[in-house]
């Protein structure tokens, strides 16, 4: 095919789309089902309606091909586990009895059975359910979901492309099942898994699929020769199948690197590649590999992870180069649009000119269609769009929102001394023990307490003007009194005020800092039915006035026990926002750190002796390839220390991390120089405690003993067993007892029972310690 005919055949597509619906209809239906208010059939009707609406919307926008199979009730990796029959033994009976209830039991657990472990999807804030595999795992194909959704789309007149998690990525994301040796490598099951994928592909072809997309994002990470050889074998075998659709292998989030020639040589029909951010290197790598002669290339030139408008001219330059490197080039977003909100047009609280800088899923779909039209019919056909795009990009670059000289001067004046505590840990630890006088195995929580419907309604009422500020503040005070009273009665040692005034751990602060934009409808799925509204970090950051001091000091006035001040750290403020892309992340992090430093210092001045600065995103934001990690960890840990280093030695600094793999950043955790770190550990059975011990971590740590992402109430014996496992790794004098994460998503009955059990477990284990323990 010539370059001219390839251009004429250009189509626009996307890899996936937001699942929850414009008003989070799926979330509400699923949670209603869990509570018994919505039937299974009603839930399925809601889901089918959302799928129909999405496909119609994408087709009407001009996409030549719509994805199917990307829809999920909870998580697409869990859907893959069902598709390949890798149901854990403890869940098998529940799945066989009622597939839908069993599915949610795997995701959330039940009172009797623990859920699958949950962790971050590469370097995003989306969480997936980790497959549990072992040498005895038996795979069996179940393509019911995938073929049913394909047939739905075909019946509606669409051109569908089923999307599956690829076999190599599925196995690389998996972990050894409980009871299996920790050094078991799930990738050794590849030859057992491939026939199952072959059966699914045959089913999809029989159901009418012309193309099937197999997502292999794990290949953008550093991979061993053995893993690359396994990839070559997988796609040799799948590519040579006689009974299959055309295969499109997709990868995103970074450059494919050494995996690119492996896939380029495989007998598959096309590749879908990311050409944004660090993945822009795929362009040169593809040219060096000789392109994709005879194959289809889906070019991800519209950033699917951030919300800024595309530079249409720059993307067209990339696409023009790619036309000569493949038999056919189509245009797409760089990854699934699951990671961005649905529609910027519905935002009414953002200034119209600033709103023109933003592109959510619908706008990104339109950008993709515009680029495809230019490639197919000529740039002149989008002259008006190009002119408007140039004006909007120039407007953003020139805006005073993006440049505050005072903020930039302060950031440039930071010295190394500003990032160092005045005393080393050993000295300040003694001062903190004398100040706080806590028992061995002190108990605490991570920060938030349940956000009831009444509390959310009160916040909505004050925002809408239906109630006055004074009435709202009395409501918050009453909530804090209840939380403090419960914690004292339960016997917790270090208390929290419960964060009733906070809508979200990032949004709450963003709304009080300059340089941030808040959305009203910008919901993004984090996990399951948990949706967040990431704020948009658009300009230079400063803190006009204290943000948390009032509520923390009010809580402290109600008790003699220490109450933690609670802040979100600078890296998480970036990672869980849509961050500006017009300056290095390190510069933005330093600005945020200075704003938070002011808050830390004000908390200490108000009498707060324990201050927690949460950094759950430290691991999440780690570059996917090792070459980029040292520079990132240097500025990320510096930003945390810049936030916290100005306090006295006897002020105890805590941090918190959750739902990520921490083993490869233990040195960075050490470099934070926090006095205490709390981490998720319940689902991973204290793995992180062992990792800290192997590193020789010298400070205090609280590996969680209560999995808060499940409705299960852990018994005293269960919590005590986890605590004893923690003591096998860390000495009692440095071990704290706490949940995995904040409690805002749980109900009060669950929280009361679980924390009472947690305290009882701590007392039981504490009482059994040798008297000389210190």
Q: What is the 3D form?
A: globular
Q: pLDDT below 50 for ≥5 consecutive residues: which ranges?
A: 1-7
Instruction: Please provide the count of β strands.
Output: 21
CA radius of gyration: 26 Å
Which class of secondary structure composition applies to the elements?
alpha/beta
Please, how many helices? 29
What composes the largest sheet?
8 strands, parallel
Overall residue-averaged pLDDT value: 95
What is the percent of helical residues?
40-55%
Give the amount of beta strand, in percent.
5-15%
Q: Strands across the major sheet, in which order?
A: 1-12-11-10-9-8-6-2
Alpha-carbon distance between the termini?
75 Å
Please describe what this structure looks like.
With 774 residues, the chain is α/β, with parallel strands linked by helices. Helix 2 (25-34) packs antiparallel against helix 3 (40-61) and helix 28 packs across helix 29 (748-767). It contains 29 helices and 21 strands. Helix 26 (666-671) links the parallel strand 19 (652-657) and strand 20 (676-679). The protein starts with a helix and ends in a 7-residue tail after the last helix.
Describe how the helices and strands are arranged.
Layout: H1 3-8, E1 12-13, H2 25-34, H3 40-61, E2 66-68, H4 76-83, H5 89-97, H6 99-108, E3 118-120, E4 127-129, E5 132-133, H7 144-155, E6 160-165, H8 167-173, E7 175-176, H9 190-207, E8 211-215, H10 225-239, E9 246-250, H11 259-265, E10 270-274, H12 282-288, E11 292-302, H13 312-322, E12 326-333, H14 352-355, H15 361-377, H16 383-398, H17 405-412, H18 425-436, H19 453-464, H20 469-490, H21 507-510, E13 516-517, E14 524-527, E15 530-532, E16 536-537, H22 549-556, E17 564-568, H23 570-575, H24 585-605, E18 610-614, H25 629-644, E19 652-657, H26 666-671, E20 676-679, H27 687-695, E21 700-703, H28 716-727, H29 748-767
Parallel strand pairs: 1-12, 2-6, 5-7, 6-8, 8-9, 9-10, 10-11, 11-12, 17-18, 18-19, 19-20, 20-21
Antiparallel strand pairs: 3-4, 13-16, 14-15
Helix pairs in contact: 2-3, 5-6, 7-9, 9-10, 10-11, 13-15, 17-24, 19-20, 24-25, 28-29
